[in-house]
């Protein structure tokens, strides 16, 4: 579709403005809204954004760096991502990739990182299909009180705790191209889970990103707040972002992860799992991206504590699901809801790819694997040392990421005198909720 055609369709839909939107390093949605009259120009020339946008802390301050110019970026819109926003009358949204003003790609842009990883799969004749499964809390926007008080998973009356909110959300998501498969209360006070159809390539992360922003925005319209931080309350379940991977043969569409007579996974599928479990400690830096995330990794909470795998094992880092006749898929359960969806999908696929490239065989299902780091700084060190992941994700991205995330660690250390102690790991502070609870 060309920009002029898009403008005619947008006019017919009553759209007057378009939001040009990207995910920053934390996965926070940042956008500029332009009048429809500017749309064609801005699609053709790009929208100018502050060149330090990927180098900020979650509160919006620049990461401390030597002074110097930060040349602007251009957001180059991708017309495939254009949608009319049902919950924001008269407004549409479009995503895209970042370039420098002289037309070079910005290597630290997470959407670009994901596309580079996907290209490696295409080179192997594989299409990566991903289903992103989010859990999140729903709270009173003013008091942060959960909308229901108990861990009543699936309880019909808890599902209907805020019926107007639920109806607005479930009506809006399909109109954004997000094909919801299930909505239910989860296993914690005020926690919900929504699953939606998987998508191929970058579209999976585009959808997850739009999903997250839409949930937050519609919640605000109901005076509710939907934090996607991974562990908002110490004594209740964390919020996961489970990634369901399939690898399809680019030519035939067949499921290349699916098994042989001796098990649910093919040789390729086993190598994919082996890559994820072997690189789990370094992957945590990308899939559990805040100091708070490491409080989610707790035994007995359906969250992983080591790089393990198993068939239908909810305590494992990688769970093989094989039940609807279409063959096995691999669910990476490491990611917390706070993860930047572009980085999460890219990282998980990069881990799997390292297994494919090395033709790895995983340890037996259920065997103990590498322990997960207990703090973000340890995970960041593991990422820095993982030459395979650095190569696939790109050195420039990893350098930027380490800079931003080590700054997150420094902020946590400055705010909490007992950072990284057992006592600190057992509680969640208001500071964390302020730092990660609103825009993420
Ligand atoms: N809330 C759990 C997590 O932190 C997952 C629960 C489930 O298996 O749905 O990942
Ligand atoms: Mg769940």
Number of helices: 14
What does the largest sheet look like?
8 strands, mixed
What ions, cofactors and ligands are bound? glutamic acid, magnesium ion
Number of strands: 19
Radius of gyration, in Å, reads 21 Å
Q: Which percent bin holds the helix content?
A: 25-40%
- Unreliable stretches, pLDDT < 50, 5 or more residues? none
Percentage of β-strand residues: 15-25%
What's the end-to-end separation, in Å?
Answer: 32 Å
Describe the structure.
- The protein is 35% helix and 20% strand.
- The chain has helices spanning 3-12, 39-45, 110-123, 156-159, 163-175, 202-221, 267-278, 280-287, 341-357, 376-385, 387-393, 395-415, 422-426, 430-436; strands at residues 17-23, 29-35, 47-49, 73-77, 83-84, 91-94, 96-100, 126-137, 139-140, 180-185, 191-196, 199-200, 224-225, 241-249, 258-260, 263-265, 309-311, 318-321, 329-332.
- The strands form 5 sheets. Strands 8, 10, 11, 12, 14, 17, 18 and 19 form an 8-stranded mixed sheet that branches.
- A hairpin with a 6-residue loop joins β5 (83-84) and β6 (91-94).
- α3 (110-123) runs parallel beside α9, α5 (163-175) packs antiparallel against α6 and α7 (267-278) crosses α9 (341-357).
- Bound molecules: glutamic acid (GLU) and magnesium ion.
- The site of magnesium ion has 3 residues, from loops.
Secondary structure: elements and pairs:
Elements: H1 3-12, E1 17-23, E2 29-35, H2 39-45, E3 47-49, E4 73-77, E5 83-84, E6 91-94, E7 96-100, H3 110-123, E8 126-137, E9 139-140, H4 156-159, H5 163-175, E10 180-185, E11 191-196, E12 199-200, H6 202-221, E13 224-225, E14 241-249, E15 258-260, E16 263-265, H7 267-278, H8 280-287, E17 309-311, E18 318-321, E19 329-332, H9 341-357, H10 376-385, H11 387-393, H12 395-415, H13 422-426, H14 430-436
Parallel strand pairs: 1-6, 17-18
Antiparallel strand pairs: 1-2, 3-4, 4-7, 5-6, 8-11, 8-12, 8-14, 9-13, 10-11, 14-19, 15-16, 18-19
The protein binds glutamic acid and magnesium ion.
Magnesium ion binds next to loops.
